[in-house]
Amino acid sequence: MTTGAENALEHVSAIARQMVGRWGMSPTIGPVSVLPAPGQETPCGWRASPPATKELVDRETHQIVEECNERAVATLRDHRDQLGALTARLLERETLEEAETYQAAGQHVPAR
């Protein structure tokens, strides 16, 4: 993690929180909306929800972000050789066309 990732982390956290608290995408909370719609927030960002609900939303949000992080790291790890080859080519040339990018990563250019 770096400070450069701060904006991405804020975005992913906000999306996960909405998945849990507004869109009913948490099996633990279920298909209910427990967060206010944009513009209907209280000063602290919550309706009059019980503290236990707030804690549950936080836990579920954290779990989603953790699972996504683990999946991203696994994907990067699984494709380490391709990423290394692509990095080496970019260090040589700085910019690549689409076909060169696929070639550097050892992939075929997808048919259109």
Short description:
By secondary structure, the chain is mostly helical. The protein is built from 4 helices and no strands.
Which secondary structure elements does this structure contain, and how are they paired or packed?
Elements: H1 6-21, H2 51-78, H3 80-93, H4 98-104
The number of helical elements comes to 4
Low-confidence stretches: none
Return the CATH topology of the domain at 3-78.
Answer: Methane Monooxygenase Hydroxylase, Chain G, domain 1
CATH class of the domain at 3-78: Mainly Alpha
Instruction: Indicate the proportion of strand residues.
Output: under 5%
First-last Cα distance: 36 Å
Number of E-type strands: 0
Order of helices and strands: HHHH
Shape, please?
elongated
Write down the Rg.
20 Å
Question: What is the CATH architecture descriptor of the domain at 3-78?
Answer: Up-down Bundle
